[in-house]
Amino acid sequence: MSAGFVSLIGAGPGDPGLLTIRAAKAIGCAEAVLYDHLVHPDVLAHASSGAEIIYTGKQGGTDYISQKDLTSLMLDRARTGKRVARIKGGDPFIFGRGGEEALACAEAGIAFEVIPGVSSAHACPAYAGIPLTHRDLASHVTFVTGHEGAGKEGAGVDWNAIANTGGTLCFLMGMKNLPDIAGRLVGGGLPPDTPAAAVEWGTYPRQRTVTSKLSGIAAECAKAGLGAPAVVVVGKVAALREKLAWFEKKPLFGLRVLVTRPEGQAAEISGMLSDAGAEPVHIPLIRIAGPANPSKLRDALSRLQEFDFVLFTSVNAVDHFFGHMREMGFDSRSLCGVRVAAIGPVTASALEERGILPDLKPAEFTSDALVSELSSAADLKGKSILLPRSSAAPQGLRDSLAALGAAVEEVEAYRTLSAEPGPEALEKAGNRIDASVFMSSSAAEALASGGCSAAIRALVSASRIFSIGPETSGTLRRLGYGPLEAAVHTSQGVVATMLDFYRNRR
After folding, report:
1. Residue 466: HSE in the Cβ half-sphere, 13 Å Cα cutoff
2. Which of 36, 91, 383, 434 is catalytic?
3. Catalytic residue among 15, 25, 42, 58, which?
4. Could you tell me the residue range of the domain that residue 487 belongs to?
5. Catalytic residue check, 36
6. Distance of CA 274 to the CA centre of its chain
7. Which one of 115, 198, 340, 397 is separated from 506 by 20 to 30 angstroms, measured CA to CA?
8. Is the dihedral of CA 453, 471, 263, 207 positive or negative?
9. Are 357 and 425 members of one domain?
10. Catalytic site residue 42?
11. What pLDDT, on a 0 to 100 scale, did the predictor assign at position 153?
12. Taking the model in full, what pTM does it have?
């Protein structure tokens, strides 16, 4: 049996974009992944498909799993020869008990490494527009745990000394004891009008920040309903937030947006939504599968030279078309002499990655525009056209081509099936969705299917709905929804439409 190995990994304060490259690599190599409560779910996407994923809780005030049991679990997995990724929020060595877990590895003779993370101690204030140091205001910063409780007998924190240390004070895990902490600081000599701020869920789109004088910060936080996790900053630099706040000013900040794309296809639009300040909630309503009868597609592939045109209407069609070609021992040379058309830049890019430059790319990314482009480029009467796509695709394109005299052979290159999201999807959505994004008619159809719960439909119905294009909008309208349609039928176009809609409404 090979020796096990433990990676003690800091996942950062929440924003998955703050995960380090080194951390992502270690998670991807792990055979067992142990993660804490404050680790963003997207961080787990770096894990391999065969990894054992174990939730270890570690939420303040709960007894989901004790530190002793957690450490034993980590060591047990390593003793079986596994590579273990122990993922902790923030940085493992800053109030994260990572030191204790590292010592346990050392004492057990298990090799380990420590991968530092971006600590919430400085990241959350930064996202709130508060620099912990400033040449004119604070030349040093003191990090303090607020978890002990200022009134605890024999506490390790000398609150009188802390009150007189000057510079910036930064408290982690201090919300429960904030009234006591603030009182001890003022009692120790810190002026009651010292600027203070509390940042809840820092770096997340749900981030909230409360500012006040030190003497009133606890009451203001209670009034706003702020709770853990939060970072509290005390010092002159807290007053700079008024000028430097940037994260909460993002155009879609705080919006929870339902993304309905299939697994593996949501990264682009989710990334753009995150960059604009929104919180993407990915619940796939459809899933992509291979054709039910691959022989029909393979037969068409063996006769490619019989066709005048091959039309691609989606990346999925490109992926499955070329996947089957490769399995049959063919490559792009099989398309020599055949004209290729693509709807939209993303589909065109997928073809270009395989060495095919589309002959036709309509300026508008619709079936009608593609038909118009084809009929302008050639007399379609008697022309043979191969149309590989989903069997669930609307028939308008085929009918329009046939009406122009073309001989259209439509083959199922892939299937679009209902994903049937379960209870965990509803838990992910919570009780609020502000906007829903539909990128295909199939996703809209799945919303009305029996596999989609009434609770998810209710959340969508209560949200503002955005559609990628005319066919998707038509399906949504037929189902009783009133979507806002993107002017440009791409992911970028959908987000641009959202930005235009919310710009003057917030």
Report:
1. 30
2. 36
3. 58
4. 256-285+420-503
5. yes
6. 7
7. 198
8. negative
9. no
10. no
11. 56
12. 0.83
